[in-house]
TrEMBL record:
NCBIfam families: pcnB (TIGR01942). This is Poly(A) polymerase I. The gene is pcnB. CDD domains: NT_ClassII-CCAase. It comes from Acinetobacter qingfengensis. Residues 34-159 form the Poly A polymerase head domain.
Amino acid sequence: MQTLRASKCGLSTSKLSPAILEIIDSLSKAGYDAYIVGGGVRDLMLGENPKDFDAVTNATPAQIKQVFGRRCRIIGRRFELAHVHSGRELIEVATFRAPPKKAVTSASGMILRDNNWGSIEQDFSRRDFSINAMYYQPRQGIVLDFCEAFQDIQQKKLRLLGDPKQRFEEDPVRMLRTLRFAAKLGFQIDQGILDIFTPECTQLLREVSPHRLYDESQKMFSMGKLTQLLPLLIQFHIWQQLLADLKPKITPLMQRAAENTDKRIAQGKSINSAFFYAVLLWQPYLERMEFYRSKGVIDAEARAQASIDVLKRQATRTIIPRFAETFIREVWEMQTRLIAPKAQHIMQLVNHARFRAGFDFLLLREQSGDAATQNMGAWWEQFQELNNDQKEKAIADYRRQQQRSRKKTTEQSAEPFVPLVLETEVNSRAARRAKQKALVKQQRAEIIDKVPVSMQQGQGISPDHPILKRRRVQRDLSHVVFGPTQ
């Protein structure tokens, strides 16, 4: 162990939040040893701003509860921790841990219980990565380094403490943390880790709770380094363990969404991690929807059933909370409504609670080369920049365009009309007379054909016979009175 000066490591109390200082001071005042440990210390040494700070002490969770009273809540069964509220911040306070007296592990070696308290030296040996095993005492201005962690930070090296195979068996989630730190910090993974990071090793993740895997995936999706992380998930065979029925391939939509997410985080904007799940599961959703359509299911039911199937299948790997599932389904459903909206529903769609998320998803699809969007992403983008009068005009133009498109589609789909008798239009009086004479001649020929041959020969009926020259006059029956009359 070596004791380093905090100032030499680039650490100072001015860079700490008042909340973590208040926690350290309260525990020290109560007679306990307290240090800042973990990613907060590491990030400060790298010149970054930590999201939060974790504290560690030799006080048990029950003793921590006595110090902070109602501000403290003890959580966890596998790893018992204390959550302490200080102002608006929540600080996680852990107790020094010792190796278990009797190992409570699964068949593969995963630790199921770890609530044995010990000293700071024993606690150091239980930590996973060297860069997370430095103990910073801000009031004394010292850093305790048990494993040359400061040197690993300077060399940008990611190294596990102890035997990597055993550490992964104790907690398979450390595989995900390895890739997360490698992508976030740009560190090189130690060769000892690379030697055992095999597809067989990643099967250990199947023993981890799907709820915990979802929480870990949220940390990966929201760290602002998705572009660097996705190739690592494929390279180290983690993709298949996190995503069900999804081929290990980064589609243009995933790449565009990852870049957009990283950009928003860099600008300090908020993100919804469930949105990236909607992107990842989009292709399985389309495939499942086509399956139901091929069975003759109508579009609305096919979309609804496809979303249920895909999310239920994904729950075998990472259980997405109910509110996040609802968000994903609504984003998918908005795609159909935004691509082919009814003119009278456009303003309602703009005011919809999921319009912004659905529009962002549609625009990402369009920018990634999806022709099914029909350029409606650009239309909605321009529509939002218009004032009220311009919006009314845009809706009217869209309605006319929709009517023309519908009419054109009807004409193209209808079969051409073929008249049974082709007739030329008769305009002149002479042509009408000639047509009438031809009709009379045809009628006479039909009558002769109906008269028996013997009758024609006996009486000498010829085409010039008076009976055939007689013209039949159509009587007006409206002036005829039928029945008895007075």
